[in-house]
Amino acid sequence: MPWTNTKLEFGALAKFFHWSSAAAFIVAYAVVYYVIWFMDDMAPEALPVLNVHWVLGIIVGFLVLPRLLWRFTNVQPDPPHGSRVEHVLAHVAHGGLYALLIVMPLTGYIGTDAATDFGLFKVPSFRETAVFGWIESGLGIDWDRFEPPVDAIHHFVGKWIAWTVVALHVAAALFHHLVRRDNVLTRMLPGRSAA
């Protein structure tokens, strides 16, 4: 399988970005809902589990920039047959997915007052960064005023918007595969060729 895309299908690198981002995003959700449903999120034993959520969130955020650069610099497969409205809706839906891949990790990171431990290294909390130091000293906004609205955005988008956008994406892929019987899904599957 070639690394680059063709007019017929996505290449190995695009598939890697898609499936690794999707896996990290979904597992991050599963982990945080485990904490919400089965643990006291303020208890010390919840911290290592929440750290897994933070690690996965940073991975999603780290992958989104090269993924976008690859998307804009590499040829994209031809769109499937469909109306102009369907193509516009597909572009809007993909824009929504990319917005999620930016907003969720960004608000998650800047709204968390704890370092993220990757094992071999730690990513300092946003509160410990020079950027927040500038916000605090330059704008006069302390952590107690900064964190709640950021956290509210993260939780609102995660609880009410993200699942809807992801569910629509999955439903559209299944619709193309099971109803339209075109190659929209197969051209993104790892190790599969849509041709």
Strand order of the largest sheet: 1-2
- How many angstroms separate the termini? 12 Å
Helix percentage:
55-70%
Query: N-to-C SSE series?
Result: HHHEEHH
Number of helices: 5
Strand content: under 5%
Contiguous uncertain segments of 5+ residues = none
- Main sheet characteristics: 2 strands, antiparallel
Mean pLDDT: 93
Cα shape = elongated
Name the structural class: mainly alpha
Radius of gyration, whole Å: 19 Å
The tally of strands reads: 2
Give the domain tally.
Answer: 1
Family: Belongs to the cytochrome b561 family.
Domain Cytochrome b561 bacterial/Ni-hydrogenase: 10-191
Keywords: Cell membrane, Electron transport, Heme, Iron, Membrane, Metal-binding, Transmembrane, Transmembrane helix, Transport
Subcellular location: Cell membrane
Summarize the structure in words:
The protein is mainly alpha-helical and 195 residues long. The chain has one domain (12-188). 66% of the residues lie in helices and 2% in strands. The chain has five helices and two strands. It has helices at 12-38, 47-73, 84-110, 130-139, 143-180, and strands at 116-117, 122-123. A two-stranded antiparallel sheet has the order 1-2. Strand 1 (116-117) and strand 2 (122-123) form a beta hairpin. Helix 1 runs antiparallel to helix 2 and helix 2 (47-73) crosses helix 3 (84-110). The longest helix has 38 residues, at 143-180. The chain is elongated. The mean pLDDT is 93.
